[in-house]
Amino acid sequence: MMGITLALLASVGAFALLVVLITWLQRKVFLIRQLAFPLWVAAAAAGLFTFMLVQPGYRPADMHRGLLWLLLFCGISLVLRLLGLYLFDIHLYAQKGVRMPPLLTAVAMAVVYLITGLVTLRLTLPNLDVTPLVATSAVTSLVLGLALQPILSNFFAGLVISVERPFRINDWIRVGEHEGRVVTITWRTTHLRTRDNDNLVIPNGKLADERVLNYYYPHPMHMERVKVGADYKVPPYRVRRALLAAMAGVAGALDKPSPDVYVLSFDENAILYELRVWIDDVVQGPRIASDIRARIWEEFKKVGITVPHPIRTLELPPRPRRAAPQETAPQEKDRPRPAHLYIAEGPDRGVSLALEGEAATVGRSRDCTLRLNEPNASKDHLRIAWQDGAWRLTDLGSSFGTQVNGSPTTSRALAPLDRITIGGTVIIFESE
Which residues have a Cβ under 8 Å from the Cβ of 93 and sit 6 or more positions away? Predict the structure, then answer.
């Protein structure tokens, strides 16, 4: 009896020593980490062999068959695991560029180990009836399935996620009210790293029921929307120009696809605009939107555009005025009205010229009041002067002509917001 006890202690010690050695080597060598399970089976076979060496007189036939089964199972499992490494890591990933999900690979190898164990058990122990074992396993599986239904639901949901791959490691996703970067996908849960650098653990079953928004697939490019209100007195084309100028040079904002500006609504106190900018990483979205808003404030300050606050206007009836003696004043029609020429499109877009009474000339010549870099403009293209109570445009015999609101024009009185077209340049006449 003492000899059997010593043999048992020796076998357990040998098995434990080998397990500790394998665990230590797992941290050092990649191949040992991948072959851990067959090596553990080999450690169990070594422990059984140690027992037989220490107690040579105690060698039942079943012990020999058990050792044979362990060795056979270890050898076949080792070969199958090496084939799995070649298939998943070399053939599919290194050569084909297809990386299988880790959960799917682990489940596939577990099924292979189970089938290998049953086949080798049948070969080494032919008298062993595996039918009761299978039946008992079925009943046990049914009981465990009912007891562990939530866990199994998460497990199979993890399998579906691994096969369909709606998101991958390092993808930025949104699930319900939460969003973050996918850092780990296990058999039961998926781990997200949020913007606050917190680890959010979501059961796979919940991911299967929720709507998942993947910001990185099929492309990480994302549209960022920045809304801002502007005063009703400012023409939309000026606001559009200022918004597009504000996003230029912001780190993370893309030039292609081109940004765009939309007029969303006419609100109670302002016209609401939306600047749509494409960014290369949704993770940087809050920072990019903050930088764009800061640049919008600076650009609005430069060009004199105000973001109005809620305003209430109180109108009072005017007081009666005393009759004043008639004063001699120039006729209203002889006094030039303040006006501006604003280049909305073309090489010189954004340039503005104030009309204060004297005639202004437009063209490519250096002597022109408003000099253009438009190739289709003549040296002295047109002239704008105050005549008969209105600002009048006169074409100066230009080569390619002048259009006002899309119609060819040689001379006409200008109305507020008329569009003067010279080649690819569009000049807007602004007047109160």
Answer: 99, 100
| DSSP per position, 108-140 | HHHHHHHHHHHHHHHHH-TT---HHHHHHHHHH
Give residue-wise pLDDT tens across range 237-258. Answer: 999 999 999 988 888 899 888 9
Question: What pLDDT is attached to residue 134?
Answer: 56
Are the CB atoms for 346 and 374 separated by under 8 Å? yes
Q: Which of 286, 269, 235, 281 is nearest to 427 (CA)?
A: 235
3-state secondary structure of 314: coil
Tens digits of per-residue pLDDT, 54-92? 776 666 666 777 778 888 888 888 888 888 887 877 766
Distance of CA 251 to the CA centre of its chain: 16
Task: Count other Cβ atoms within 10 Å, centred on residue 321.
Answer: 6
3-class SS of residue 310: coil
d(CA 151, CA 188): 7
Does 218 sit behind a cis peptide bond, omega within 30 degrees of 0 on the bond before it? yes
Higher pLDDT, 367 or 321: 367
Q: Report how far residue 125's alpha carbon sits from residue 135's, in angstroms, rounded to the nearest whole number.
A: 18
Question: Would you state the pLDDT for residue 408?
Answer: 92
User: Side chain identity at 289, as an amino acid letter?
Assistant: A
Torsion of CA 6, 10, 11, 17, to 10 degrees: 160
Q: Which residue has the higher pLDDT, 329 or 160?
A: 160
* Contact of 279 with 288, CB cutoff 8 Å: yes
